[in-house]
Amino acid sequence: MPSLIQKCTSINSLKKARQLHSLLITTTTTAFYAQSPFLYNNLLSMYARCGSLGDAKLVFDKMPHRNLVSFNALIAAYSRAPCYASFAFKLNTQMGKESMRPNGLTFTSLLQASCLLEDRVMGSLIHTLVVKFGFGDDVPVQTSLLGMYSNCLDLESAKKVFAYIGDKDVVAWNSMIFGYLKNDKIEEDQFLFDSMVKSGVNPTHFTYSVVLNACSTLGDYSFGQLIHARFIVSNILADLPLQNALLDMYCNCGDTQTAFRIFSKMQNPDLVSWNSMITGYMENGEGEMAMDLFVQLQALSLHHPDEYTFTAIVSATNAFLASDYGKPLHAQVVKAGFESSVFIGTTLVSMYFQNGDSESAKKVFNLISEKDAVLWTKMIMGHSAMTDGEGAIELFCKMCQEGHKSDSFPISGALSACANLAVLNQGKMIHSLAVKMGHDVAITVRGSLIDMYAKNGNLRAAQSIFSNVSNPDLKCWNSMLGGYSHHGMAEEALNVFEEIQKHSLYPDQVTFLSILTACSHSGLVEKGKFLWNHMKENGILPQFKHYSCMVSLLSRAGLLDEAEKVIVESAYSENQVELWRTLLSSCVAQRNLSIGFTAAEQILKFDSGDSATYILLSNLYAASERWDGVAEMRRRIRGLSLEKDPGLSWIENKKNIHVFSSGDQSHPNVDEAQAELHRLKENMIRSVIDEFDSRIYFT
User: Fold this and answer.
1) Pairwise CA distance, residues 667 & 661, whole Å
2) In a 3-state reduction of DSSP, which class is residue 648?
3) Confidence of residue 584 (pLDDT cuts 50, 70, 90)
4) Is 306 exposed, middle or buried (0-12, 13-18, 19+ CB in 10 A)?
5) What is the predicted pLDDT for the residue at 17?
6) For 382-412, b where at least 16 C-beta lie within 10 A, e where not — what string?
7) Ranges of CATH 1.25.40.10 domains, the chain
8) How far is residue 313's CA from residue 365's CA, in Å, rounded to a whole number?
9) CA-CA distances (angstroms) from residue 568 to 208, 225, 226, 238, 334?
10) Of the CATH numbers 1.25.40.10, 1.10.260.40, 3.40.50.1820, 3.30.565.10, which one belongs to the domain with range 475-646?
11) Which of 99, 142, 365, 697 has the highest CB neighbour number within 10 Å of its CB?
12) Whether the predicted pLDDT of 698 surpasses 50
């Protein structure tokens, strides 16, 4: 019977184990069964191996005579199960009440339970009992102490235990090496591996796996190559887990070519191998290679893509149009039955937002029933990035209402939405929430707070937050710079720009856009030209907004020839129409027919029926008193069916957001609003503000 019991070794054997137990009860005499701790202990261990700790506890409770083996068997079973690990300590207390003295196996299991629960306090108490009962020199107990302290992130105590061990075996070395990796002490981890080899202890497969993981995390290509060489010398390169660790190391170090050479020589790569290689291509920006390998996986391999495969390949195709790869991959995800996976769903949401398709992102989001905080954060950040501030704030509120804990990232996204919408009250409420949750000290939140207060006109609050940041990053500096620029405070903006450089930070595209905008608003032409050249000299490629800002700066200053030259040199041919329109508007103000005609001609090449251009041309003719041209433009405009999208504006007042549409008379306070606008207009006329710009040549 004991030999049959020993054969029940897994959850798949549970039914057979219960049948054996029933057979034992029916075929064995009551006296023998009751008086046999050996039989009870075998049954207890059998249920523990089969994963049925409830049955194991029932057997334990019915034992008429329990011994140390009985307690150790159940404690060991509890220590391996996360949901039952805490019961191991209660059982140890019961053992003491029954006057049983623990041994090394008891302490090994109790320390394993502490390790599993990451309970350093309980682990330290067990350590005192180890010393009290004289098991401080027991090697398995010492190794368990190493594992417990390392897993509880108490590396100093682990090092003391390791130093105390006299004859260190490979298990002790492995525990300490893993401890360094667990505590992100990667360089020390590699040093310890060297010491292990020099002491004459041969590394195991587990050792190599941990050290390769360290090389992968640190990006230490040279050390990883040395480990690879040891594989070849030791003739262990055929081990599949080690091959996968090598793939991961080379990919993380950016050498996908060597990784693929290893992959192509693998006789039977498993799905982990395929996923590692696809992920490696994805992380190194080689989307096409990742897609090719994904196609091979489906065509040549017996393995089917899992969640990790789809997550990696969808991420790899983010750089391409969703219609090219993303949507077909999404269809495969649905076909494979993963459409409700939050893991893949988060990646799909990110892909759709990167392609500007918020509707598809919403559909994916709504199909996932078990949403986690990461998915909510992606949605909030996505809406905020697409300037859908109302959507971002609404999602943030729903996330909080459903009980998800917000970290710094969704808070930062919601604050950015408040900044773009210029809604100060909502921003203040989210600021209060950040303080309450302790996230206001996060650098990402502080940067967003500075941006929110600055864009809402509260520069004093923005400056106060900024001054309390001990080591502001570039985002914080850019937020402060952007605030001054947004409000036309060029001198303050230039001072911030100088401070950025003094703090050895490198200005990026956002920095230069803000400072160029400040120069444009304040008419600082020479300074703007210098910064424009300085940006290009520092290897920062101007984007469309930079060109638009520079054209506006030069045009306002009357330097129309130079503005035209900037447009011609721009690389954004599809958006040049906007640049030409900016130049044409300035030509009206400067009454420059020659360049104005050139700008209009370029615009009409893109859209021959552009009504705004004909209106600007009419104004240009009127400014130059060319009334025949005005008449011609009016004639052409009549031939067009002009339909202009109504202008929209909104304002926050007393916690309510009021939206106004051009020509809309439905707002309940429209009469008051129009009266106020009339009053402002009268004041502007009396103040003679920008007399020429207020003249309207065509309505």
Assistant:
1) 9
2) strand
3) confident
4) middle
5) 61
6) bbbbeebbebbbebbeebbeeebebbbbbbb
7) 475-646
8) 19
9) 59, 51, 54, 60, 47
10) 1.25.40.10
11) 142
12) no
Q: Which of 97, 100, 103, 48 has its CA nearest to residue 77? A: 48
CA dist list (Å): 186 to 118, 183, 218: 21, 8, 7
CA 17 to chain centre: 47
Q: What is the helix (H) or strand (E) element at residue 595, kind and residue range?
A: helix 593-606
The closest alpha carbon to 490, from 527, 454, 463, belongs to: 527
Name every residue whose Cβ is closer than 8 Å to that of residue 274 and which is 6 or more positions away in sequence. 293, 297, 301, 303, 309
pTM for the full model?
Answer: 0.70
What percentage of the chain reaches a pLDDT higher than 70?
87
310-335 per-position pLDDT tens digit: 999 998 876 565 557 788 889 999 99
Written as six digits, the tokens of 601 are 């001609």
- Residue 539 tokens read as 């290897």
Amino acid at 397: C
38 close to 65: Cβ distance less than 8 angstroms: no
In this prediction, residues 45-62 reach a mean pLDDT of 78
The one-letter amino acid code at 307 reads E
The letter for the amino acid at 483 is: G
- Closest among 120, 117, 119, 61 to 91, alpha carbons compared: 61
Q: Considering only 57-71, 291-305, 469-483, which range has the smallest mean pLDDT?
A: 57-71
